[in-house]
Amino acid sequence: MKKLWTLFAAVALVGIMAHAALAAGDTLAEVKKKGVLVAGVKDSLPPFGYVDEKTREIVGYDIDFCKYIAKKLGVKLEVKPVTSASRMPQLMEGNIDIIAATMTKNPERAKQIDFSYTYFLTGQKFITKKGAVKSLKDLEGKKIGTAKGSTSEQNVAKAIPTATILSFDDYPQAFLALQQGKVAAVTTDESILAGILGKAPNKNKFEIPNLQISEEPYGLGMRKDDKNFVAFVNKTLLEMEKNGEAKKIFEKWFGPKTATPLKRTFKIAADK
Questions:
Q1: Using an 8 Å Cβ cutoff, are 208 and 126 in contact?
Q2: d(CA 37, CA 23)
Q3: What is the torsion angle, in degrees rounded to the nearest 10, for the CA atoms of residue 91, residue 73, residue 106 and residue 26?
Q4: How many whole angstroms separate alpha carbon 35 and alpha carbon 209?
Q5: Given pLDDT bands bounded at 50, 70 and 90, which one contains residue 271?
Q6: Beta bridge partners of 118
Q7: CATH fold of 25-119+219-254
Q8: Is the C-alpha dihedral spanning 145, 147, 151, 154 positive or negative?
Q9: Which residue of 4, 103, 164, 215 is surrounded by the most CB atoms within 10 Å?
Q10: CA 109 and chain centroid, separation
């Protein structure tokens, strides 16, 4: 019996040590050792992450950043679909190495995970039926769709307290609810809304009014105190800005000839 307890204790200790090693920031070494970087990405949110109809592969702005990081590491890239609600649990449970999924950096999340420097900057707006919304007052007491576990969910509740917030698994479902007349608006970051609208067959019926309720800096998410990996990713992002790769990726997905034309109003720099 004593031997059995000793065995249990040894197994438990190995588990604790493994968890501690993970928490202490061994991702950089582990990724190099296994030869694969596993990134959690969106798979239905153009142009950040979506399934290409021809290749059936997940492509997008977020994926291109991960490809560059993986190449810099000298490893292969594996992408796993995540939702706004599942991305942090997936990271903390060790199922993915990095989150690249339109994730806003905020103090609440930063208590649980670490973020890279800002690699995309946008602001929260709305998609509405054309001419239906001129000011935030037009949305008071109305139903507004967004995604579960997103900062958009919290921001709109603060901005329009009388609105009823309907939270969906992701933004395309929220947009479908708008098309069906179940909500008066869909809210999230302008860049995501532009991507949704750009792919909509009936996009002429909708618009993004010039009503911004927050600024949204996106960061790549990594495990807490994963210092070596965070430093490597940040160094790589600064390199991408310096050598023009970051701008090139932006133009590829948000340039004037794309379905989601936006101006690049930011540069990647060392931030908190």
A1: yes
A2: 17
A3: 50
A4: 46
A5: confident
A6: none
A7: D-Maltodextrin-Binding Protein; domain 2 (3.40.190)
A8: positive
A9: 103
A10: 12
Residues 6+ apart with CB under 8 A from 107: none
The pLDDT of 91-105, averaged and rounded, is: 97
Ramachandran category for residue 94: left, alpha or beta (phi over 0 → left; psi -120 to 50 → alpha):
left
Same fold yes or no, 25-119+219-254 and 124-216: yes
What per-residue confidence (pLDDT) applies to 11? Answer: 45
Is residue 16 scored above 90 in pLDDT?
no
The domain ranges of the chain are 25-119+219-254, 124-216
Q: Which of 121, 227, 127, 117 is nearest to 171 (CA)?
A: 127
Q: State the fold for domain 124-216.
A: D-Maltodextrin-Binding Protein; domain 2 (3.40.190)
Residue that has been written with the tokens 């001419």 in this structure: 131
Residue 123's Cβ-count burial label (10 Å; 0-12, 13-18, 19+) is: middle
Enumerate long-range contacts of 179-184, CB under 8 Å, 24 or more apart: 182/143, 182/145, 183/142, 183/143, 183/144, 183/145, 184/128, 184/132, 184/133, 184/139, 184/142, 184/143, 184/144
User: If 0-12 CB within 10 Å is exposed, 13-18 middle and 19+ buried, where does residue 181 land?
Assistant: exposed
Q: Quote the CA–CA distance of 122 and 266 in Å, as a whole number.
A: 9
Q: What is the mean pLDDT of residues 112-139?
A: 97
